[in-house]
Design goal:
By secondary structure, the chain is mainly beta. About 10% of the residues lie in helices and about 70% in strands. InterPro entries: Beta-barrel_OMP. Keywords: Signal. It comes from Alcanivorax jadensis T9.
Length: about 200
């Protein structure tokens, strides 16, 4: 029930975004959000087919102009999976992604953001099995300057990697200094639940 509520909320958010853009009363050219940064993240992935892993990821974003930005990440993960009745196994691997994003202000302190990433995932299962896949992830949602030090983001995510999955994502970003942020994030989907923390440096 909780997952269904989050999915419905995310869909409503994505549908409402264009209407919000049309109804804005004043033109805002730039909300001052940083789209050029590097960050290190730790995440816990709880995936369908009983795969539970810890992931460490280096991520980056680079703004090309006032609307378009490039993104990329390199991550390493390790954990375990349910191999069958009374049998557990180990899994580890590497995930690489690259993509682009678009953002535009809807009103003061509020951006609409959408991203598209190509993902390569390579994983090894004990004892001696391996698997790899090329897929993609699409996201669309809102980024909001909630207070002077806190930003909140959320929206819809669709991933097609080994299997397709629709979910919602949320993120909070706390400004420690003008260039250093501390963040937390979560994804809730039909086949994946992930949550993590990260540190970001804005260039």
């Amino acid at each position: 029930m909780f997952k269904k509520t989050l999915l419905v909320s995310g869909i409503a958010l994505a549908v409402a975004a264009p209407a919000m853009a049309e109804q804005r009363t004043s033109m805002v050219r730039d909300n001052g959000f940083s789209y050029t940064y590097g960050q290190l993240a730790y995440d816990r992935w709880d995936l369908d087919n009983d795969v539970d892993v810890d992931a460490l990821t280096a991520e980056g974003s680079f703004a090309l102009d006032e609307h378009i930005f490039l993104r990329g990440s390199l991550g390493f993960f390790d954990g375990d999976y349910d191999f069958g009745p009374f049998r557990d196994g180990d899994v580890d691997g590497t995930r690489l992604s690259a993509g682009a994003g678009f953002h535009t202000p809807l009103q003061r302190g509020l951006d609409f953001v959408t991203t598209a990433d190509i993902i390569y995932d390579d994983r090894d299962f004990d004892p001696g099995n391996s698997d790899d896949e090329i897929g993609f992830e699409l996201r669309g949602g809102l980024r909001h300057a909630t207070t002077e030090q806190l930003e909140l983001s959320g929206g819809l995510t669709y991933m097609d990697l080994y299997d397709d999955d629709l979910g919602v994502y949320g993120q909070g970003l706390f400004k420690l200094t003008p260039v250093v942020d501390l963040g937390a994030r979560v994804v809730v989907g039909g086949d994946r639940d992930t949550y993590g923390v990260f540190g970001r440096y804005n260039f």
